[in-house]
Amino acid sequence: MSVFNDAIQNFLAPIQDLLEDENISEVMINGPYEIFIESKGKIIRTDNRFKNNDNLMAAMRAIAQAVGKKFDEDEPRLDAHLPDGSRIAAVLSPISSNGTVVSIRKFFKEKILLKDLIEWGALSSDAARFLDICIYLGKNLLVSGGTGSGKTTLLNILSSRISDNQRIIIIEDTKEMNLDDQHVVHMVTRKEDPAQNIKAVTTKDLLHSAMRLRPDRIIVGEVRGAEALDLVNAMNTGHDGSMGTVHANNPSEACLRLETLCLQAKTSIPANSLKLMISNALNIIVQTKRFSDGKRRVSHISELLGINDNGSYKLRDIYKWVQRSKDQETGELIGELVACQYLPTFFDDIKVNRLPFPSSKFESPDWVKKLKKVA
Ligand SMILES: Nc1ncnc2c1ncn2[C@@H]1O[C@H](COP(=O)(O)OP(=O)(O)OP(=O)(O)O)[C@@H](O)[C@H]1O
Ligand SMILES: [Mg+2]
Question: Using one digit for the tens of pLDDT, what is the confidence trace for 258-300?
Fold first, then answer.
């Protein structure tokens, strides 16, 4: 990997072949002797090993130094981006019991595009067109998913579909989003460093600034703290078409997660009002999932409609991934992201704006209807 200078390359010699292999997307190191890779969605253990933990630690320190960070007993966690966009996270022992633990998520120069997701079966062309329409109509949208399920990739793709004449402000912890558009302002949070007299700049701080910077759309790379409330407020106060990602396993969990994060803002808003605010703010939840066959797919596209009498979030699936069968040889799950026989509440907007997306696009295919009968 050309991004590492010669000195670092020497340190990383034990995993050099893994870093250079274009088929490997992630290298995961659990201490010096246990190295796993992800290749084509599969996690595989390799025979690669570092000589000992000191060598592994030295390699990580060299990387940290190269990106101007520290990685030692005082600062036992490293989160960094390499100049080529690869992401590296490491934790030092004894915080981690396996020795130094590292994950390197490689950055591929070939950006993943909407058409790739369709080609790989991660998204159907109808669902992709529907998401495009949601963005065009300025729906507020949350991408929800588990770790490494493809949230940021999808958020990046969806953000890149926003029309060029709109001013986009993106807020992230580390810069992962990468849009080609002209009118994009990127802001990245900063950690506190008392030794250097550097104060923290949080996502919440940046959201406040963003609101004053005349954005048409606000994108929060990952909603993970008290900024959730500011994002909900922004969505409710005219910043339509804002987006973010959240860590949750299904759309209803995503709403609850957002609610829990809003509560971190120590707000005095009563629970019911907060739920109402969230359900007014958010229109669409797109769920990403890494399935048992290792493939990453969109599993749900759901509309948030309000609150049920029992206080739960009222959600309706518009598209949902349904399994049809399984390839016996490869173990690959065979299925489709199908329409769920539900017209979104804003279907009239689709019609009024003369967007070529007829109601038939929301009808379930016959095989799914039959499956339901069988079930
Ligand atoms: N549909 C897809 N098919 C195959 N690979 C994908 C797909 N979507 C994303 N990837 C790859 O999967 C990895 C994880 O993607 P991404 O960073 O978007 O996940 P994430 O959910 O944001 O992860 P995290 O929870 O760590 O923030 C990346 O290497 C990315 O290139
Ligand atoms: Mg992410």
Answer: 999 999 998 889 989 999 999 999 999 999 999 999 899 999 9
For ligand 1, pick from 28, 40, 296, 298 the residue to mutate: most ligand atoms within 8 Å of CB: 296
Res 108: pLDDT: 78
Question: Which residue's alpha carbon is nearest to atom 12 within ligand 1?
Answer: 150
What b/e readout covers 265-304, taking b as 16+ CB neighbours within 10 angstroms? beeeeeeeebbebbbebbbbbbbbbbbeeebbbbbbbbbb
Q: Model pTM? A: 0.90
What the block records as the tokens of 129 is 């067109």
161 φ, ψ (degrees, to nearest 5): -90, -5
- For atom 9 of ligand 1, the residue with the nearest CA is 150
Q: For residue 286, what are the β-bridge partners?
A: 143, 301
Q: Is residue 217 within 8 Å of residue 234, measured between CB atoms?
A: no
Instruction: Say yes or no: CB of residue 150 within 6 Å of ligand 1.
Output: yes
Listed in sequence order, the residues at least 6 apart from 11 whose beta carbon sits closer than 8 Å to its beta carbon are 55, 58, 59, 62, 63
Is any atom of ligand 1 closer than 6 Å to the C-beta of 289?
no
299 lines ligand 1 (CB under 6 A): no
In total, the chain counts a number of residues equal to 375
What pLDDT, on the 0 to 100 scale, is given for residue 5?
A: 64
Is the minimum distance from the CB of 122 to ligand 1 under 6 angstroms? Answer: yes
Name the stretches of the chain with pLDDT < 70. Answer: 1-7, 83, 181, 372-375
**Top-level class of domain 114-374:** alpha beta
Closest Cα to residue 54, out of 73, 32, 28, 27? 32
CATH 3.30.450.90 in the chain, residue ranges: 6-105
The architecture (CATH level 2) of 6-105 comes to 2-Layer Sandwich (3.30)
Residue 121, ligand 1, Cβ within 6 A: no
Pocket test for ligand 1, best of 23, 111, 153, 333 (most atoms within 8 A of CB): 153
Positions of CATH 3.40.50.300 in the chain? 114-374
